[in-house]
Design brief:
The chain is of the alpha/beta class. Helix content is 26%, strand content 22%. A hairpin with a 6-residue loop joins β1 and β2. It starts with 19 loop residues before the first strand and ends with a helix.
Amino acid sequence: MSRAEPRKEQPLKGRVVVTHCRRYVPTACPSVNVIESVYHRPMQDPTADVSAFVLAGGKSTRMGSDKAFVMLDGRTLVARALDLARTVTDDVHIVGSAEKFAAFAPVIEDIFRDCGPLGGIHAALRASAAELNLILAVDAPFVPSALLLHLIARARSSEAIAIVPRAGGGWQPLCAVYRREFADAAEKALRSGHYKIDALFDEVKMQAIEEADLARAGLAPNIFRNLNTKGDLEEALRTEN
């Protein structure tokens, strides 16, 4: 009887092969090892390095009621902001009162209380495990997902600590991307009693996104308008309808 010929492997044609392997990762406990899945980098979630934080801790004095729960087009402002943030990342948090917001998303509370939005940014960055952190104000319901993607793309291609639009009459620090390192400058300012966010832009490496940049991306400056008063809300309701 003749010996069987060894089987020849056929070349792969027109197929994409995804390699998935597993490796053991030592932990602090010698008796426990974690099995970690390892994927080729292009297969990773493209938003895995991004967290988003909706700032909802304002006092809403001019509105007369909590802006986060103001209704616009059948949804509260906090629901709109969360839905928007979730278009670019699954890691979405609210910065505000846990008592008010824990039912809607994971909540981060300020470390420095009653210090305005800078305190919220600081708390978000101190709690974040992501390198890039998208900050969104709860009262800016006209910001489109396209802007968030534009900011994240610019942040990934830059070493800047803060990537902030400068449009609609000035800086827009509550629709911006910050690296965790910005928390150090924020904490220094907060401890000194200085709460103005854009005053810190001279102290860190930052990148401004100018109106011309936004225009090239098809984005208009009026996307940054806030709802601060009942008049703002009435105008927005007329616009929406």
